[in-house]
Amino acid sequence: MTEIRTASRQDKDTNPTELTGAARAGFRERNFIVFMAAVTSIVAFSVDMMLPALADIGSEYRLSDANDTQLVIIAFIFSFGVSQLFFGPLTDAFGRRKILVGSLFSFALISVAALFSPNFETLLLARALAGVAAGAARTASQAVVRDCFVSSDMARIMSLVMAVFMVAPLAAPVIGQFIIYLSNWHWIFLFLGIGGAITATIGALYLKETQDPENIRPLSAKRVSQAFLESLTYRRSTGYTLVSVAFTGALFTYVVMAPQVFGELYGLGGNFVYAFMAAAGALTVSSIVNGKLVKTVVLRKIVHLALIAFFIMAIIFVVLAYLDSIPFEVMLLITMSTMFLFGFVATNTSAIALEPMGHIAGTASSVINTVSVSGGALIGGIIGQLYDGTVVPMATGYLILAIIAIIAAFWGERGSLTLR
Question: Which pLDDT does position 151 carry in this prediction?
């Protein structure tokens, strides 16, 4: 890959915002991709590394309801989603670099502080604050990419970032399990803190401000609220945002229930992480396949076919769940299929929803991300709290979400689905 010279090698009088590509941010292209993948991976590590620790957390804090441990995941994801709505306008007003570097250092400090949580409530507070910091970092990093690359170059860079990022869901549960084996779950937060501090330090040393000075927008509640309301007025955009909420809800349902379903119900114990990795692997494969399909296949067709497939799979899942106990191999296949289909929906629905909103893309993207992630987290949390030692709540939840997604897409398309 041809590498672009760093901004530091440019003439000292050159304004970094006049540059293009990774040099605009002060990086070589390869290093830029790795840095952005590291920022993006914070979320995956913060969620997936904690999964092996949930049972130990419940025991240490003597929680009466084992389902309450799921709140460790939900608190982080929900605050991560909500924070993006606020930090979108902040990055436009104060610049990308300050928000990105500051949020990364904040994430590192909060993670280390979580090490010493004296009770479960304090731990949940620390997780929520870490989610806010991670959301700010995610929002600022996306703005940096938009500043540096446009059109097909942006798609290429994001594909490469996602290719590196996909390592995180595969490695995180195993790393978390290994840390617990060596010491205890508290030290997972030290690992996260060190990772956040290293990423923040790299950003502080090398990242340049990428926002054009003329694009700085003073923070205005009126302007933000107007853009927010406008982003909800497009029927197709709203429809596909609801599709994203439904699928994200299914994803988080699986994430919060996986330790109990595979670890307790199927008796895998700590080895449930390998079943989790299998599903994450299916998501990785579908993301790669989707990246190739979108070049030749209409986005709506891909999404609609995935919706129908998810609906059929959910019906089969419900029938099996209510009729008899599901063999482990079948359950693993169902979860892998769900994650595989999610790879065809996640990025495509966002792209479709943003199509008519180029003039307010930043705010619209924040709104869509906030609604999708936070809404999905709430749905996943509610379904997770219904866990009763069987897969019936998960299966029922999948079917309801499949129906909601199909209705939302049908409404957004004004009564038609593209299937051929």
Answer: 54
